Amino acid sequence: MLLIMAEAAAHQGKEAEALILLNRLQLARNANPTTNSSGNALLEDIYVERRKELICEGQSGFYDLVRLQKRLFRYGVSATNPGGHYVWGLQYLNGYNASDAQPSAYLESNDYRFFCQIPQMEILNNKAVSESDQNPWSGQ
């Protein structure tokens, strides 16, 4: 809730209030508080904290990327980035080149792969859902 309130305050131009709310959460987690952040930098700090706070919760990450219309970037393991992602998953994303010194890939925020397909049984059994409601699989 603190992160939602901080983001709302930042969007309303109440940067001091947003920073206080962000720092309140960070101090509760024994993290270094954010200082001297304002404007887009403050919002980015809030989004980074959301990713850290809500990791594996199923509500951050992809949903925030779609909501905020931001690209998903993944960087592969390499000599210069030993902490990167395993390369085998990158091949399914856009822009991947295995021969790059620093392999990376991305998905646009509106990419069809962010959205699940409607199960066929749901389309068959639910009169309120039709085949035309199906999320595209081939991409658009």
SSE order, as H and E? Answer: HHHHEHEH
Distance between the termini: 35 Å
Shape: flat
Neighbour order of strands in the largest sheet: 1-2
* Class per helix and strand makeup: mainly alpha
Spans of 5+ residues with little confidence (pLDDT < 50)? none
Task: Give a verbal description of the structure.
The chain is mainly alpha-helical. It has a domain of 60 residues. Helices cover 40% and strands 6% of the residues. The chain has 6 helices and 2 strands. It starts with a helix and ends in a 15-residue tail after the last helix.
Concise summary:
By secondary structure, the chain is mainly α. The protein has a domain at 1-60.
Write the layout of secondary structure elements.
Elements: H1 2-11, H2 15-28, H3 39-53, H4 62-68, E1 72-75, H5 87-90, E2 104-107, H6 120-125
Antiparallel strand pairs: 1-2
Keywords, please?
140 residues; mainly alpha; two-stranded antiparallel sheet; 6 helices
